[in-house]
Design goal:
Order of helices and strands: HHHHHHHHHHHHHHHH
Number of strands: 0
Structural class: mainly alpha
Shape: globular
Helix content: over 70%
Strand content: under 5%
Oligomer: single chain
Largest sheet: none
Distance between the termini: 25 Å
């Protein structure tokens, strides 16, 4: 190949990389900020609930247990709107984009019915599980206020997926940023009974969340129906028409996503139970490290959604090289950002741990030291978790969710959990061994997903050549 031809190809590749990086970053930034904004609201809720008392915090945790499976499953299923609508957008099929959102709204409604039944019967469920009656009664108060807000939350999630699919996620960020102070004000007023309002305590906290969820959904619906480019899709047209064929596609794509999320969250819950056997200090250190992990994880989650949309666009317009570029650029972006943040966490791990520990506590030094060690062990875990999240998002853009679910079961549970148990208890490494097991399992999952993505991209290229 002549040097001039090589130079032209290199210039074209650099131009393609820069263009894809720009588009991915523009799409990912509001998604990442939205994820972080949701964490801020959850933290605010917990801070105000903590002012009621320790029992209220425990009750809120129990209420979350009642709703967590249904809400996680619903969010995963509704998230399938993004790849379906993104492929339709890439194929210049606005009708299919609108139908995808419509079925996402229907799916949210159908899922909310059993979720609401669980909310209304939460007290009986928790008593049957053996929890203390006093704490259970408080949990039911929270559920009475919280349960009604799950439907608008899922509907807003569907609208968010639709907006992401058409490449305009900024309104979701604006809505979330506006909701943060409103949520804090409502939680404070309704919990404490200020400005002439009754003191509702935990019920007030749940009611505040419901009101905020209704507000965010209505704001999202206004953008989707009144503002360009969203209004061009006529999202409320034929709203009552049930599309069985598209609902089947939504279920086929979305259900494995939901189960995979439940598998991952279940792994961390199981790890917490294992660490609970070791000591109270180990549990506290694990919670500190896990909280840092949760915050860092929001970044690759946002980039993973952007990757899903960008890959979906490329598939829709039958751009095989675009599929490869979208996945590669998103992964490089996520790894670069996560690596920088990981280095910052390593350098400040002791200071981070001290933020969560009362220095006057008797075991403060031991907790801080162990949490710092777990953050150091988790350094590789942070990066591999970013890779798996973005690779999974890219595969979602290809509507490939069933094989990744199988890989999640193998990597997370067969390998990760087993190693956590062996390293933690059989070899005697304790909490550090459990975190090593989690890190190895996540690394295996990330590697398997990357290989899967490369395989599917090669198949698409081969099919295009023939």
């Amino acid at each position: 190949m002549s040097s001039s031809r090589y130079g032209l190809l290199r210039l074209a590749a650099d131009h393609r990389f820069a263009g894809e990086l720009n588009e991915t970053a523009k799409l990912a930034l509001p998604m990442v900020m939205t994820q972080l904004g949701e964490i801020v609201m959850m933290t605010t809720d917990l801070a105000f609930i903590g002012r009621i008392g320790p029992e209220a915090v425990a009750a809120a945790a129990l209420a979350g247990t009642v709703l967590s499976v249904g809400l996680t499953f619903g969010a995963g299923l509704v998230s399938a709107v993004a790849p379906l609508a993104a492929q339709a957008f890439g194929a210049a099929n606005p009708t299919l984009v609108q139908r995808s959102l419509r079925m996402g709204l229907w799916a949210a409604l159908l899922l909310w019915v059993p979720m609401m039944a669980f909310s209304l019967r939460g007290e009986q469920i928790l008593l049957a599980l053996g929890y203390a009656p006093a704490t259970v009664r408080l949990a039911q108060q929270y559920l009475f206020g919280l349960g009604w807000g799950m439907l608008p939350a899922l509907w807003f999630s569907a609208i968010r997926s639709f907006m992401s699919a058409v490449g305009r996620a900024e309104p979701v960020l604006w809505i979330t940023l506006a909701a943060i102070p409103i949520n804090a004000m409502l939680v404070y007023l309704l919990i404490c009974g200020k400005l002439g309002l009754p003191r509702l305590e935990l019920f007030g906290a749940g009611l505040a969340t419901t009101l905020v969820n209704c507000g965010t959904f209505l704001a999202g619906l206004w953008f989707a129906t009144m503002r360009r480019p969203f209004r061009e899709y006529h999202v409320l047209a034929n709203l009552w028409r049930f599309d069985w064929a598209l609902m089947r596609q939504l279920i086929v794509v979305g259900t494995p996503i939901s189960i995979a999320i439940l598998m991952e969250s279940g792994l961390f819950s199981a790890a917490a139970l294992l660490i609970g056997v070791i000591s109270t200090t180990a549990v506290a250190a694990h919670q500190i490290a896990f909280q840092v992990t949760t915050i860092l994880f929001m970044i690759p989650v946002g980039i993973g959604i952007a990757a899903s949309v960008r890959v979906g666009h490329a598939v829709g317009r039958n751009d095989i090289s675009g599929v490869k570029w979208a996945g590669l650029v998103a992964m490089l972006l996520g790894v670069a950002i996560t690596a920088i943040l990981t280095l910052a966490v390593i350098a400040t791990r002791f200071e981070i741990a001290e933020l969560f520990v009362d220095e006057s506590a008797s075991n403060a030094g031991a907790t801080t030291g162990l949490a710092a060690k777990l953050l150091l062990v988790g350094a590789s875990f942070f990066i591999t978790d970013a890779v798996q999240s973005i690779a999974a998002g890219s595969l979602h853009g290809l509507r490939d969710t069933q094989v990744p679910l199988l890989l999640a079961g193998i990597a997370y549970w067969l390998i990760g959990f087993s190693l956590s148990y062996v390293l933690g208890f059989k070899i005697g490494l304790g909490a550090i061994g459990i975190w090593l097991g989690l890190s190895i399992g996540t690394a295996v999952y990330a590697a398997l997903l990357v290989m899967r993505l490369q395989l599917l991209a090669s198949r698409l290229a081969l099919r295009a050549d023939t």
